[in-house]
Amino acid sequence: MSAVNCLFCNIISGQIPCAKIYEDQHVLAFLDINPIAPGHTLVLPKPHYPTLLDLAPGQGEALLQALRKVGAAVQKATNAPGFNVMQNNFSAAGQVIFHLHFHVIPRFDNDGLPDWAGKPYADNAAMQRMAQAIASIL
Ligand code: 5GP
Ligand code: ZN
Questions:
Q1: What percentage of the chain reaches a pLDDT higher than 90?
Q2: Rounded to an integer, what distance in angstroms lies between the CA atom of residue 5 and that of residue 85?
Q3: Which domains, and CATH codes, for the chain?
């Protein structure tokens, strides 16, 4: 499965070049062209799934194993004490390329990259209502 106008499908097919890190039957990983930090890598399934919600059953294991391998290699090559795995779904979340992909970002202590700021629920009842609202859909 591939989408003709999809940039990442064109990278997967070799029509557009990339700085390749890893490839297997199911997954490709290459350097992000505009890295948050040097070594910032994108890991993606070869079939064209626009978002995580479209991922076919059974495809997750190969992706997760590739993320573990690539994450370890990025961390080692950049001497990073940590790394983030990040994944955006839909424009509101910052998704720009609608071919599912995971960002692997090397992290250093006090590297100045923004941390997620948490904000507690108003009270426990509000937290329970939210849990119920989500759980009732599943
Ligand atoms: P998103 O915001 O969709 O989660 O992330 C898309 C990512 O793709 C961005 O971090 C952007 O820098 C990267 N990107 C966009 N175009 C290209 C390209 O042509 N080649 C590579 N290697 N990365 C790209
Ligand atoms: Zn695609």
A1: 95
A2: 26
A3: 3-137 (3.30.428.10)
Q: Beta-carbon neighbour count of residue 111 at 10 Å?
A: 13
Cβ–ligand 1 contact at 8 (below 6 Å): no
The verdict on the CB of residue 49 being under 6 Å from ligand 1 is: no
Catalytic annotation, residues: 101
Q: Which two tokens stand for residue 32?
A: 């992000």
Give the mean model confidence (pLDDT) for residues 9-15.
97
pLDDT, the chain, mean: 96
Would you state the pLDDT for residue 104?
A: 98
- State the burial class of residue 95 (Cβ atoms within 10 Å of its Cβ: 0-12, 13-18, 19+): middle
CA–CA distance, 61 with 45 (Å, rounded to integer) = 11
Ligand nearest to the CA of 88: 1
